[in-house]
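A.,

Following up on our hallway conversation. Structure tokens first:
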């Protein structure tokens, strides 16, 4: 791994941590989770922007396939890796009980990005993966932020739910499998292929959870048991991270 990449990762971890501290100081009455989600939203927007700027040919956004990563792609991956390290630590500190699906998602992503940076190839495919995985993240965090601001079970919160579910489905379950297929069928290192497939399987697992959540929210009726159902769906969504 190049020295400038190592420096970018170290500076990135420190920068994300500093950003969290600043947000925490700015909103002292808000929860740890609220502040972390603001940082996560900033990263999601930055990751999608960097992935978009790294595209070399819009006729084929994930081309060249299995090629040497560009300097811009390597830096973008290093920024995302620094965030993933920061966020994994935050999640472990924040949660009373470890969410294994969220932890596995972070570890798979971290190992995959490290592999891409070490091999210095597959940059186009990995930028495509970053684009589809972070595309829905702002709306995931928005729905939780709205709840803490007092908009739980309101039309605004439902709109955020629908936007998140729709974008997640489009990005991770329609475009995602295409990128996974290209990665698996190209001349990429085995580790990158394995991590790409693992990430897609985690996305599929979350997709079925989201379908259950949206089915309940769109069909629920007011009843004495509705509060328990709402609590259940909220617990499902808290386990999903981007």
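Then the amino acids I'd put at each of the 242 positions:
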């Amino acid at each position: 791994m190049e020295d400038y990449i190592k420096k970018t990762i170290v500076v990135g971890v420190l920068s994300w941590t500093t950003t969290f501290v600043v947000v925490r100081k700015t909103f002292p009455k808000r929860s740890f989770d609220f502040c972390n989600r603001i940082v996560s939203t900033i990263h999601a927007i930055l990751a999608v922007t960097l992935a978009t700027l790294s595209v070399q040919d819009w006729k084929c956004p994930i081309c060249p396939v299995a090629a040497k990563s560009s300097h811009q792609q390597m830096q973008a991956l290093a920024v995302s890796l620094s965030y993933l390290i920061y966020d994994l630590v935050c999640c472990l500190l924040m949660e009373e009980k470890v969410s294994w699906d969220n932890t596995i998602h972070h570890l798979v992503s971290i190992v995959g990005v490290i592999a891409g940076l070490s091999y210095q190839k597959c940059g186009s495919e990995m930028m495509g993966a970053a684009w589809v995985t972070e595309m829905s993240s702002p709306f995931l965090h928005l729905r939780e932020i709205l709840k803490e601001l007092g908009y739980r079970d309101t039309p605004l919160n439902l709109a955020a739910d629908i936007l998140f579910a729709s974008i997640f489905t489009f990005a991770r379950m329609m475009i995602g499998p295409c990128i996974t297929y290209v990665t698996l069928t190209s001349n990429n290192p085995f580790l990158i292929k394995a991590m790409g497939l693992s990430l897609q399987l985690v996305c599929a697992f979350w997709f079925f959870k989201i379908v259950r959540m949206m089915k309940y929210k769109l069909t629920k009726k007011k009843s004495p048991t509705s509060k328990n159902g709402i609590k259940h769906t909220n617990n499902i969504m808290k386990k999903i991270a981007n």
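Confidence is low (pLDDT under 50) at residues 221-232. Curious whether your intuition agrees with the design.

B.
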